[in-house]
Amino acid sequence: MAEEKNKLTMIVLSGDMDKVMAGYNIATGAAAQGMEVVIFYTFWGLKAIQKGNLTGKGLFGRMLGLMNRGGIDTIGPSRLNFMGMGRWMFKMMMKSKGITPLSELQKLSFELGVRHLACQMSMDVMEIAREDLLDEVSDVAGVATMLEHASQSKVTLFI
Fold first, then answer.
1. pTM (2 decimals)?
2. In the predicted model, what is the mean pLDDT of residues 102-125?
Protein backbone atom coordinates (compact mmCIF):
# COMPACT_ATOMS: atom_id res chain seq x y z
CA MET A 1 0.00 0.00 0.00
CA ALA A 2 1.18 3.48 -0.83
CA GLU A 3 2.15 5.93 1.89
CA GLU A 4 -0.90 7.73 3.26
CA LYS A 5 -0.98 11.48 2.65
CA ASN A 6 -3.10 14.34 3.94
CA LYS A 7 -5.41 13.68 1.03
CA LEU A 8 -9.10 13.19 0.28
CA THR A 9 -10.32 11.09 -2.62
CA MET A 10 -14.00 11.39 -3.43
CA ILE A 11 -15.95 9.28 -5.90
CA VAL A 12 -19.03 11.13 -7.17
CA LEU A 13 -21.51 8.70 -8.71
CA SER A 14 -24.62 10.82 -8.26
CA GLY A 15 -25.55 13.75 -10.46
CA ASP A 16 -28.18 15.00 -8.02
CA MET A 17 -27.98 18.62 -6.89
CA ASP A 18 -28.00 17.86 -3.15
CA LYS A 19 -25.37 15.13 -3.39
CA VAL A 20 -23.06 17.14 -5.66
CA MET A 21 -23.45 20.08 -3.28
CA ALA A 22 -22.46 17.91 -0.32
CA GLY A 23 -19.45 16.73 -2.31
CA TYR A 24 -18.33 20.27 -3.15
CA ASN A 25 -18.86 21.42 0.44
CA ILE A 26 -16.63 18.62 1.71
CA ALA A 27 -14.05 19.06 -1.07
CA THR A 28 -13.70 22.82 -0.66
CA GLY A 29 -13.60 22.51 3.13
CA ALA A 30 -10.84 19.91 2.91
CA ALA A 31 -8.88 21.94 0.33
CA ALA A 32 -9.21 25.09 2.45
CA GLN A 33 -7.68 23.13 5.35
CA GLY A 34 -4.69 22.22 3.21
CA MET A 35 -5.69 18.72 2.12
CA GLU A 36 -4.95 17.50 -1.37
CA VAL A 37 -8.35 16.71 -2.90
CA VAL A 38 -9.21 14.52 -5.89
CA ILE A 39 -12.77 14.05 -7.13
CA PHE A 40 -13.44 11.13 -9.49
CA TYR A 41 -16.74 11.55 -11.37
CA THR A 42 -18.40 8.43 -12.73
CA PHE A 43 -21.72 7.75 -14.49
CA TRP A 44 -24.36 10.29 -13.40
CA GLY A 45 -21.75 12.27 -11.48
CA LEU A 46 -20.34 13.36 -14.83
CA LYS A 47 -23.34 15.69 -15.17
CA ALA A 48 -21.69 18.05 -12.67
CA ILE A 49 -18.65 18.63 -14.88
CA GLN A 50 -20.30 18.72 -18.29
CA LYS A 51 -20.69 21.95 -20.25
CA GLY A 52 -24.37 21.24 -20.85
CA ASN A 53 -24.30 20.69 -24.59
CA LEU A 54 -25.95 17.70 -26.26
CA THR A 55 -23.78 14.60 -26.21
CA GLY A 56 -23.68 11.27 -28.01
CA LYS A 57 -23.04 10.09 -31.54
CA GLY A 58 -25.22 6.98 -31.80
CA LEU A 59 -28.96 6.70 -31.27
CA PHE A 60 -28.77 5.62 -27.61
CA GLY A 61 -26.00 8.10 -26.80
CA ARG A 62 -28.01 10.97 -28.31
CA MET A 63 -31.17 9.89 -26.47
CA LEU A 64 -29.24 9.76 -23.20
CA GLY A 65 -27.67 13.15 -23.91
CA LEU A 66 -31.08 14.66 -24.59
CA MET A 67 -32.83 13.17 -21.55
CA ASN A 68 -29.90 13.58 -19.16
CA ARG A 69 -28.23 16.81 -20.19
CA GLY A 70 -25.42 17.80 -17.88
CA GLY A 71 -24.27 21.14 -16.57
CA ILE A 72 -24.04 22.35 -12.99
CA ASP A 73 -27.05 24.66 -13.34
CA THR A 74 -29.33 21.98 -14.79
CA ILE A 75 -29.01 19.24 -12.20
CA GLY A 76 -31.96 18.79 -9.86
CA PRO A 77 -32.39 17.49 -6.33
CA SER A 78 -32.60 13.75 -5.68
CA ARG A 79 -36.11 14.14 -4.29
CA LEU A 80 -38.91 16.62 -4.94
CA ASN A 81 -37.60 17.76 -8.32
CA PHE A 82 -41.08 18.24 -9.79
CA MET A 83 -39.81 18.46 -13.39
CA GLY A 84 -37.35 21.26 -12.56
CA MET A 85 -39.54 23.17 -10.12
CA GLY A 86 -37.68 21.63 -7.17
CA ARG A 87 -34.35 22.88 -8.51
CA TRP A 88 -35.74 26.41 -8.74
CA MET A 89 -37.31 26.15 -5.26
CA PHE A 90 -34.09 24.92 -3.65
CA LYS A 91 -32.05 27.65 -5.36
CA MET A 92 -34.46 30.30 -4.04
CA MET A 93 -34.40 28.82 -0.52
CA MET A 94 -30.59 28.65 -0.54
CA LYS A 95 -30.35 32.25 -1.76
CA SER A 96 -32.68 33.47 0.99
CA LYS A 97 -30.46 31.76 3.60
CA GLY A 98 -27.20 33.09 2.14
CA ILE A 99 -26.01 29.64 1.05
CA THR A 100 -23.31 29.60 -1.61
CA PRO A 101 -24.80 28.48 -4.95
CA LEU A 102 -23.64 25.18 -6.39
CA SER A 103 -21.98 26.84 -9.40
CA GLU A 104 -19.92 29.05 -7.08
CA LEU A 105 -18.87 26.06 -4.96
CA GLN A 106 -17.72 24.32 -8.12
CA LYS A 107 -15.74 27.41 -9.18
CA LEU A 108 -14.21 27.63 -5.70
CA SER A 109 -13.15 23.99 -5.92
CA PHE A 110 -11.22 24.78 -9.11
CA GLU A 111 -9.64 27.84 -7.50
CA LEU A 112 -8.57 25.83 -4.43
CA GLY A 113 -6.76 23.32 -6.64
CA VAL A 114 -9.14 20.39 -6.29
CA ARG A 115 -8.32 17.86 -9.02
CA HIS A 116 -11.36 16.78 -11.03
CA LEU A 117 -11.06 13.45 -12.85
CA ALA A 118 -13.68 12.10 -15.26
CA CYS A 119 -14.18 8.33 -15.57
CA GLN A 120 -13.12 7.20 -19.04
CA MET A 121 -15.29 4.07 -19.01
CA SER A 122 -18.42 6.02 -18.04
CA MET A 123 -17.69 8.59 -20.73
CA ASP A 124 -17.31 5.82 -23.32
CA VAL A 125 -20.59 4.13 -22.33
CA MET A 126 -22.55 7.40 -22.19
CA GLU A 127 -20.87 8.80 -25.34
CA ILE A 128 -19.52 11.88 -23.61
CA ALA A 129 -16.41 13.33 -25.26
CA ARG A 130 -13.61 15.24 -23.49
CA GLU A 131 -14.81 18.35 -25.34
CA ASP A 132 -18.18 18.00 -23.53
CA LEU A 133 -16.49 18.51 -20.15
CA LEU A 134 -15.53 21.78 -18.52
CA ASP A 135 -12.06 22.95 -19.49
CA GLU A 136 -11.04 22.99 -15.81
CA VAL A 137 -11.44 19.21 -15.49
CA SER A 138 -7.93 17.96 -14.73
CA ASP A 139 -7.98 14.70 -16.66
CA VAL A 140 -9.92 11.73 -17.95
CA ALA A 141 -8.82 8.61 -16.09
CA GLY A 142 -9.68 5.03 -15.31
CA VAL A 143 -10.49 3.23 -12.11
CA ALA A 144 -6.83 2.29 -11.58
CA THR A 145 -5.93 5.98 -11.29
CA MET A 146 -8.76 6.57 -8.82
CA LEU A 147 -7.64 3.56 -6.75
CA GLU A 148 -4.07 4.85 -6.69
CA HIS A 149 -5.31 8.16 -5.27
CA ALA A 150 -7.58 6.37 -2.78
CA SER A 151 -4.74 4.17 -1.56
CA GLN A 152 -2.74 7.30 -0.68
CA SER A 153 -5.63 9.10 1.03
CA LYS A 154 -6.48 9.50 4.70
CA VAL A 155 -10.13 9.84 3.65
CA THR A 156 -12.02 8.23 0.78
CA LEU A 157 -15.70 9.06 0.27
CA PHE A 158 -18.34 7.73 -2.13
CA ILE A 159 -21.22 10.07 -2.97
1. 0.91
2. 97
